[in-house]
Amino acid sequence: MYLHLGQSVVIPHRDILGIFDLDNASWAYKTRELLERAEAEGRAIWLTDDLPRSFILADSRWGEPVVYISPLSSATLAHRVERGGLE
User: Fold this and answer.
1) Which pTM value belongs to this model?
2) 3-state SS, one letter per residue, for 26-66
3) Which 8-state DSSP code applies to residue 15?
4) Does the chain have fewer CB atoms within 10 Å around its N or its C terminus?
5) Chain-centre distance of CA 49, in angstroms?
6) 28-40: pLDDT as tens digits
7) Residues 17 and 58: beta-carbon distance below 8 Å
């Protein structure tokens, strides 16, 4: 099964490590540090030019996890996971 993250990007469910609300999670110092490090290392993939609402931490299978910055809310993404996403 796959999850649509926005901007025609889909990833396998098995690769998802976490789905996070950007407004709530970015208050924590460690989360900001993770996002800044992923951006600096080129592991952050922006799926929007507008205000992002969530980020998805995904296994890359080639090293460090990848961070997808999505315009979709974490609630929408979680609902898609519960529904089964794309099969």
Assistant:
1) 0.90
2) CCCHHHHHHHHHHHHCCCEEECCCCCCCEEEEECCCCCCCE
3) G
4) C
5) 15
6) 999 999 999 999 9
7) yes
